[in-house]
Design brief:
The protein is about 35% helix and about 30% strand. Strands 1, 2, 8, 9, 10, 11, 17 and 18 form an eight-stranded mixed β-sheet that branches. Strands 6-5-13-14-15-12-16-19 form an eight-stranded mixed β-sheet, sandwiched between helices. A three-stranded antiparallel β-sheet has the order 3-7-4. The protein is built from eleven helices and 19 strands. It is an alpha+beta fold and about 400 residues long.
């Protein structure tokens, strides 16, 4: 009998498994793609902007030391509306913090987490393996796991199953939990770009009529680019010769970061908002993209999912009873409700507000950005967003140990 079966070993699922290490709980982690495989979508060359709360969570998990050497601090943020006069700036120094967050390659985060997982004695790893079938009842969860490439089948029984298997979650479907899907009709074109000016830790979010464009500093001096635009435009950008691509980027972004000298494009992915009707079901918990998959604007998606994992680990290790008991799952859901709904509204609202090109709305955006740039209290409030929008923050996110001592 397994206490907790985690389906999905990406960044959120792996973080939860690390958090449960040493808790005395018997944990099974099922992941279909090996960490080192180039096809591993969770640990590829894309980057993630980790908020300070996420840094503290990784510190508490013991993974930050491996991640930190390749983590680039965000020292300042610049937000602008293309073709309009207003902009807003935030400085970490003015807010009394070392950085607003840290930009890290996903493969680096994965390596830091899996270094712990492979050394955890009470963890059963099935990688690569796929979930062949799952049956969820009030008495327990039965899983059929097929290892690759051998095809060997195993059957496990668990008291709780955690869906960390993404926006198209097989576990969520098996639990009968519905999910609302909203397609933004955009693709994110991802690249690493070089400029003739040092980034000095500046992060940019520029809203264009085609969609938001984010430029983030990297530890090697380059910058990570996430360019959201309509699917046809995205395909055109991916097909352009490098010089023409850089010219288009320069035209849309401007010259604040200097001249764009080179770009290594790494593909694109669709942008959709997926929201599960509830994060819990019968002996089931949804975390990360299985619970909510967000637009990358403002970089909130993974940070929210990591807080899911940190809070779930806290609830489980703080209760010696049945980890799939309804009362425990309801407590987790209640503690995460306000943070989840707040982040979803915030990111979805930004996409729609800055995508509205009506003249009156554009003028209101300009006035709002100007007011924000001149309002220290608003800047202080935004600087604290990484801890969570509302509701109790996980102990790890506050720099406290996972367990009460």
């Amino acid at each position: 009998m397994i206490d907790i079966a985690i389906v999905g070993g990406g960044m959120v699922g792996a973080s939860l498994a690390v958090g449960l290490a040493g808790s005395g709980r018997r944990v099974l982690l099922v992941e279909s793609v090996p960490l080192s495989d180039a096809a591993q979508p969770s640990f590829d060359e894309r980057t993630t902007a980790l908020g300070n709360a996420s840094r503290r969570i990784f510190e508490g998990l013991g993974a930050w030391a491996a991640i930190a050497p390749q983590a680039q601090p965000i020292r300042a943020i610049h937000v602008s509306d293309a073709g309009r006069f207003a902009f807003a700036r935030l400085s970490a120094q003015e807010q009394g913090v070392e950085a607003f967050g840290y930009v890290v390659a996903n493969r680096c985060i994965g390596a830091g987490l899996w270094e712990h997982l492979t050394a955890t004695p009470d963890l059963t790893l099935r990688v690569p393996a796929r979930l062949g079938g799952i049956e969820i009842t009030p008495e327990g969860v039965r899983l059929e796991v097929t290892s690759e490439p051998s095809g060997a089948r195993e059957h496990f029984e668990a008291r709780l199953v955690v869906a960390a298997d993404g926006a198209h979650s097989q576990v969520r479907a098996a639990a009968g939990i519905s999910a609302a899907l909203e397609d933004y009709q955009q693709l994110a074109v991802v690249a690493s770009v070089a400029t003739d000016r040092e980034h000095e830790g500046w992060a940019y979010e520029r809203f264009t009529p085609a969609g938001p464009l984010a430029l983030l500093p990297l530890h090697d001096g380059r910058r990570a680019l996430v360019w959201a635009c309509e699917p046809q435009k995205a395909q055109e950008l991916l097909a352009l010769p490098e010089r023409a691509y850089l010219a288009q980027l320069q035209s849309q972004f401007g010259w604040r970061a200097g001249r764009f000298l080179g770009a290594a494009r790494s593909g694109s992915y669709p942008l959709r908002l997926t929201r599960a009707a509830t994060p819990v079901g019968v002996r089931t918990v949804l975390v990360g993209n299985a619970a909510q998959a967000l637009h990358p604007v403002a970089g909130q998606g993974f940070n929210l999912g990591l807080r899911d994992a940190a809070m779930l680990a806290e609830v489980i290790v703080g209760d010696s009873g049945d980890p799939g008991a309804p009362a425990l799952l309801e407590r987790f859901a209640a503690w995460r409700a306000r943070d989840r709904s707040g982040v979803v509204r915030f990111t979805d609202g930004l996409v729609k507000l800055f995508g509205d090109q009506r003249p009156g709305v554009a003028l209101l955006r300009d006035l709002g950005l100007l007011a924000f740039d001149l309002a220290p209290p608003a800047k202080r409030a935004l600087a604290r967003v990484s801890t969570g929008f509302a509701g109790p923050a996980p102990r790890l996110a506050r720099g406290l140990p996972l367990r009460h001592v």
